[in-house]
Amino acid sequence: MPDNDPRVFFAAERTLLAWVRTALGLIGLGFVVARFGLFLRLVRPSQDGDHGQHLPAVALGVALSLAGAAVAALAAWQHRRFCRTLGPADLPHGYQTQVGPVFGFGVAAAGAVLAIELLL
């Protein structure tokens, strides 16, 4: 195997993006589950006239969104930590290595904002 092997970095980048994709799926599922409570309320209105949100669906939706945010943040943090262990020969010349983690932290922030929005 050659000394200059950027495949190690690109494998780490693919792993990061797979985790970010998983996080996006969790965040999206959280949104759908939380809004499903609204659908249930429209289909089956309660007899006592309560027009509040369907609490279990909202709680599960917020939990899924926060889990997705945590997955994205942890994946980005782990990727940055791993990239610091690579030598200059393992990094592609002229490649911006910060783009993946910035995107991961951005997805984490979006998931947290969505969870807050679902609570309000």
Task: Explain the overall architecture.
The chain is mainly α and about 120 residues long. It has one domain. The chain contains three helices and no strands. The protein has helices spanning about 5-45, 55-85, 100-120. The radius of gyration is 20 Å and the shape is rod-shaped. It starts with 6 loop residues before the first helix and ends with a helix. The relative contact order is 0.21. The mean pLDDT is about 85.
Keywords:
120 residues; mainly alpha; 3 helices
- How would you describe the shape? rod-shaped
Distance between the termini: 55 Å
Gyration radius over CA: 20 Å
Would you list the SSEs in sequence order as H and E? HHH
Chain-averaged pLDDT: 86
Q: Largest sheet, described in full? A: none
Q: Work out the helicity level.
A: over 70%
- Counting H and I runs of at least 4 residues, what is the number of helices? 3
The helix-and-strand class reads mainly alpha
Amount of beta strand:
under 5%
Task: Give the arrangement of secondary structure elements.
Elements: H1 7-43, H2 55-83, H3 99-119
Helix pairs in contact: 1-2, 1-3, 2-3
Short note summarizing the structure:
The chain has 3 helices and no strands. By secondary structure, the protein is mainly α. The chain has one domain.
